[in-house]
Amino acid sequence: MEKKPGSRPPYPRRDFRREKEPEHRINGRINVAEVRLVGDNVEQGVYPTQEALRLAQELEIDLVEISPNATPPVCRIIDYKKFLYDQKKKQKEMKAKQVNVTVKEIRFGPNTDDHDFAFKLKHAIEFLKDGSKVRSWVFFKGRSIVFKDRGEILLLKFIQELSEYGVPEQMPKLEGKKMFVIINPKKK
After folding, report:
1. Which one of 3.90.550.10, 3.40.30.10, 3.10.20.80, 1.10.10.10 gives the CATH number of domain 27-94?
2. Res. 1: pLDDT tops 60
3. CA 129 – CA 104 distance, rounded (Å)
4. Has residue 124 got a pLDDT over 60?
């Protein structure tokens, strides 16, 4: 086969995917002199690794290194596949128990009318009942920054109206051209 000018020599195809290393060392991969053995069907204590492997083979299940950083490493005689399944199940349960806090925003102007205030108040009540935080803010556009006191009064009134549904984290605070307050829902 002749080499054509400008062509590359054929290289073998490489597979860059790597096999995943198991999370825990099991059976023959445990390479320490002695291990602390725990489990249901065995007498707990410190054993030479070969003795622990022999016990696991007699029970026809795996020797799994649970805590490799301990001295000596802690191993357990269990079915490894079942152990992984139980761990995944626990992680799922913990993830389900986590609470995701959402923050809903409500924007006012310094000259917000009573009808608009009542409309936004109704939405804030719904948000707090659903367990979301409410971040309410007054935006001062242009020269309306002169009416800072109106914005503060508006937010204080808002806090007072929501007092039975939520508690403010702090009093209204001015940052730049925004005055805001964050209201947390009350615990049930």
Report:
1. 3.10.20.80
2. no
3. 12
4. yes
Residue 66, judged by CB atoms within 10 A of its CB (0-12, 13-18, 19+), counts as middle
Output the pLDDT for position 13: 62
What element of type H or E holds 166? strand 166-168
Q: Mean of the pLDDT values across residues 153-163?
A: 88
What's the Cα-to-Cα distance from 126 to each of 4, 41, 51, 71, 79, rounded to whole Å? Answer: 74, 55, 64, 55, 50
Return d(Cα 66, Cα 75) in angstroms, integer.
Answer: 5
Strands 74-78 and 34-38, how do they pair?
Answer: parallel
pLDDT, mean over the chain: 82
Thinking of the domain 103-185, which architecture would CATH place it in? 2-Layer Sandwich (3.30)
Per the CB < 8 A criterion, the answer to whether 72 and 32 are in contact is: yes
Taking the domains of the chain in order of start, what are their residue ranges? 27-94, 103-185
Q: Is residue 79 very low, low, confident or very high in pLDDT (cuts 50, 70, 90)?
A: confident
